[in-house]
Amino acid sequence: MIMNPTPLLEINNLNVRFHTPEGTVYAVNDISYHVNEDETVAIVGESGCGKTVSVMSILGLIPQPPGEIIHGTALYKGKNLLAMSEAELIPFRGREIAFVFQDPMTSLNPTLSIEKQLTEAIIINQRTSKNAARQKAIEYLELVGITDAKQRLRNYPHQFSGGMRQRALIAMMLALEPSLLIADEPTTALDVTIQARIIDLVKKIKAETKMSIIWITHDLGVVAELADRVIVMYAGEIVEEADVVTLFHSGKHPYTQALLHSLPRADSRRTSDRLQSIEGFPPSCYNIQDGCPFADRCKFVVEKCWHNKPPLTAVDPEHLVACWINIETGDLR
Hints:
This protein is of the alpha/beta class. It is 31% helix and 24% strand.
């Protein structure tokens, strides 16, 4: 793990399992990372790699059972969130750490108007009057691209489209002005114009408030635009971590390289360039891998990869990779 003397959030050796009738799902396997103050960390990887479970766990948002946090710590401003009871976690949810879920209907109350839900967040956070909170709510809705915000404020969640509900939820979380915003693929359902507006808004508010962000996504275009540092996950494990420029220009894990090569490039001058797919499938989440979890899909695989799991190792002062092979030379590290 890249060390920092005063991280806002520090995850250490987090392991999460789900016990199902089919067997135990090894969802998150001994991951460690940190988020500094005034930093945006993107967590990327394909569906089922453990991105969402890892961040939901730190706020006690996974159902237990069937979920179980086997061990690990989540130190937020020095306090271990994983050691807290449900009641002890309440002050941290929303005010300190806000969570924007991928599906806004899991977060918005269907029986309350958008106005009620958004103004309540503003009143609690900014200690302002109801009228001032309503005006502020209108401004937030306009900022996230909802037209006729004054009238739409009176609507209920079911009267909004899916994209509008997501934007309303983003407005609500930003209104809380948390120290840490966790966003789980919040722009997936939005068209590219609104997506760009949301990203610009998040960047603006981050610059003003020094808010830290964990942005979970599969969209590397968003990562390039928003992130300071990137964590790449695969099969419940972190396989690479680096600052965003280093990762895009010098990604050293075969999976990271495969993700980058699967993207269209604006700077490609050859019409014959083809996007590269990642052959094969992720390993079963019902088994712990003895070796590298990416071995079955890796073109650099050697015998050692099948039997020994590579540790997350620094290849540069702030660049960590879990791979036995130097993919630039083909030699063992």
